[in-house]
Amino acid sequence: MLRKFNIAIDGKEYYVEMEEIGAVAPVAVAAPVAPAPEVAPEVATPVVAAPVAPTGGDTQLAPMPGKILDIKVNVGDAVTENQVVIILEAMKLENEIVAVNAGIIAAVHVQVGAMVNAGDALVTIA
Q1: Residue 117 to residues 28, 32, 45, 106, Cα–Cα distance (Å)
Q2: What is the CATH number of the domain that holds 108?
Q3: Global pTM exceeds 0.70
Q4: Any residues with CB less than 8 A from the CB of 51 and at least 6 apart, and which?
């Protein structure tokens, strides 16, 4: 919901519109619409499923988009909580991705040099 205000600062008046966060947005009620005429069905296009994070352990997800610079672990390695597992470059900064819990590396889902998006699986800790 937009709210309108006149604000005076140092004797100069400004007209501002601000959106109230957390307010319930007004719902527009549309008039009933006549049903559209039926159209012949089109040939179905295959649906490509979004990648699903592997199950069977805690999967570390990329917190931001970036490039994998280094992978510090291999499948079968034991890791401790807060141990660095991957170095991710984002916006010219190197970010250390650490293990959220102790365990064994069950899978490494990326390769050095790979570009990842936020939410992509990096490693799975069993």
Answers
A1: 36, 42, 26, 21
A2: 2.40.50.100
A3: no
A4: 120, 121
